[in-house]
C-alpha cells in the first residue's frame, strides 16, 4: 500500500498582511512529500496581534516550528503503526500526549526567547510572571500530518481546516459546534492550553478514499465572508480550479485572493493547501526537486512582513 | 466577501431629569462626535461602523431603528419626556443582539449608555435580557454618568465589570470628551483580539483594552 519515494501531494501556500497592520503576525510552513518515509506536514499560525500579545508574530513562528518538529517525530512513530492495535495507541498519543508536548515546547520557546530578549527596563521594575511573559507570544495554530494511511490534524483557536473528501464532499472536521463570536479565541498562551487542542483523526484504509484537498487557513480568510457559506464556496471554488488546472495557475492568483480577503477581514490572511495528485496524472515539473528539498517551494518562505528568525525583539514592538 | 460590521448602539436617557442643560449638552456632544466616528471608521477600512440609537423615557424607542453606516449618519436632536424606562430600552437592544439578526461574523458590538441614572422600571430584568444574548455578553460597554448627582450604581451594573468605571460627565466639556472617547476608543476596542482560557469560555485574560479619559472638571474653555 505504501509507495515510498513518490510525491503524492502538490502544495501551495501564501500569506498576506492585514490592512493597517505593522507586520504580518501569521506564519506557515509546508514540508514533506506525503509518503511513508516523508509525511506531508502543513501548519499555519496566527499571532493574536493586539498590544497584550506584543510578540505574537514570534509566537506564531514558534508554534509552526515546534509543530513541525513534533509532527516529524510523530510521522516516524506512525511509520510502524499500521496494525489496528498500534493505530489505537498512536491515536491515544495524538490525542493526549501530542498536545501536551506541543504546548510545553511552545512555552519553552517563548520563555527562552524572553530570557534572551528582555526589554530594557529600570532595575526596580517588577519581573513579569511566567504567564504574563507567555501571553506576549499568544497565537493560534492548525497543523496536519498526511501519510498514505493516515490523516491527522490538530487545532487550537480559530482559523479553519477544510477537507474535500475523495467523493468531493466538503467537511470542516475541526470547526467548533458553535463559532466564536467577535474576535475572541482560544490560544496556545492560555492556561492548560493543551486541553483546548482539538484533533481530527482519519485513518485511510483504502488509497482511493484519501482526501482530494486539505486546506488550512487563518481566520483572516473565513472572516472575510459574511457567512460560513461564503467560506465553503471559496474552498469549493478552489478545489474546482485546482482540479481543472492544477496548482500552477492557482499559485499565481492566490496572493491576490488572500489580499482581497485581508482587505475585508482586516486581518493577516494565510492559506496552506495540499492537493492530492490524481492516481495516473504526471507530476508537475519541479515537484520531485521540491520533494527532495523536504517541502514545497515556499516551505522556507518567510510570511510577508514577518520578522526574521534571529532578529532580536524588544518590548517596543507593539501592534495595536 | 464583506467587511465586518461593528454595531454601535447608543442608549440615551431622555427622561425629565435630563431637562434643560443636560439634554442640550447631550444633543450637542453626539452631533460633535459623529465626524470623529467617521474618522475612526476611515482608519479601519476593514470594519464597517453601523450606528443605532435608542432613547428611553416613559417608553423606549428606536431613534435610529435600522443600522446606519457612519457616513450616512445624521443627528436629529432628542427631547425629554417623562419616566426613565431603562429596562425597556435594554429589552429592545437585547432583541437585536441575538444571532440573527446580528450576523455571526461581526466584530464585537458596542453598547454606550448615557444617563443620569434613576431608572423607573425593572431595569435589572432588561440587563439580564442583554446578558442572556450571545452578543450582549461580549459587547464592549461604555457608561457615561451625566451630572454629579447621577446614580453611578446603575451604570456600574450595566458595565458588568468591576475593573471598569462609568465616565463622569459633570460638565459640558466632560460630556463631549466622554462621548468622543466612547465613540472612538470603544470602536477600536471592539476589534481587539482577545485570547480565551482553556475552559472554552473565551474568558478575558487581559483587562479590557481601553480606559476612560481623565479630564479636569474645568469649564473655562466651554462651548456653552
What does this protein look like?
- The complex is a heterodimer of chains A (320) and B (224).
- Chain A has 320 residues and is an alpha+beta fold.
- Chain A has one domain: Phosphatase 2c, domain 1 (4-Layer Sandwich).
- Chain A is built from six helices and eleven strands.
- A five-stranded antiparallel sheet of chain A has the order 1-11-10-6-7. Chain A has a five-stranded antiparallel sheet with strand order 2-3-4-5-9, covered by helices on one side.
- In chain A, helix 1 (56-78) runs antiparallel to helix 2 (84-116).
- With 224 residues, chain B is of the alpha/beta class.
- Chain B has helices at residues 21-43, 86-96, 123-131, 134-138, 152-159, 172-190; strands at residues 4-13, 47-56, 60-69, 110-115, 140-146, 167-169, 194-195.
- In chain B, helix 1 runs parallel beside helix 6 and helix 2 runs parallel beside helix 3 (123-131).
- The relative contact order of chain B is 0.18.
- Classes of the chains: A alpha+beta (320), B alpha/beta (224).
- Chains A and B meet through strand 8 and helix 5 of A and helix 4 and strand 7 of B.
Quaternary organisation: heterodimer
Query: On the 0-100 scale, what is the average pLDDT of chain A?
Result: 84
- Please indicate the percent range of residues of chain A in DSSP E strands (runs of 2 or more): 15-25%
For the record, give the distance between the C-alpha atoms at the N and C termini of chain B, rounded to a whole number.
46 Å
Number of domains of chain A: 1
Counted beta strands of chain A: 11
Helix count of chain A, per DSSP? 6
User: Which CATH class of chain A applies here?
Assistant: Alpha Beta
Uncertain segments of chain B: 197-209, 217-224
Overall geometry of chain B comes to: globular
Structural class of chain B, by secondary structure, is: alpha/beta
- Reported by name, the CATH topology of chain A is Phosphatase 2c, domain 1
Supply the CATH superfamily name of chain A.
Answer: PPM-type phosphatase domain
Strand order in space, largest sheet of chain B: 3-2-1-4-5-6
**What is the correct CATH architecture of chain A?**
4-Layer Sandwich
Low-confidence stretches of chain A: 285-320
The SSE order of chain B reads EHEEHEHHEHEHE
Q: Level of helix content of chain A?
A: 25-40%
Mean pLDDT of chain B: 84
Strand content of chain B: 15-25%
Protein name (chain A): PPM-type phosphatase domain-containing protein
Pfam family, one (chain A): PP2C_2
Domain PPM-type phosphatase (chain A): 22-258
Biased composition (Basic and acidic residues) (chain A): 310-320
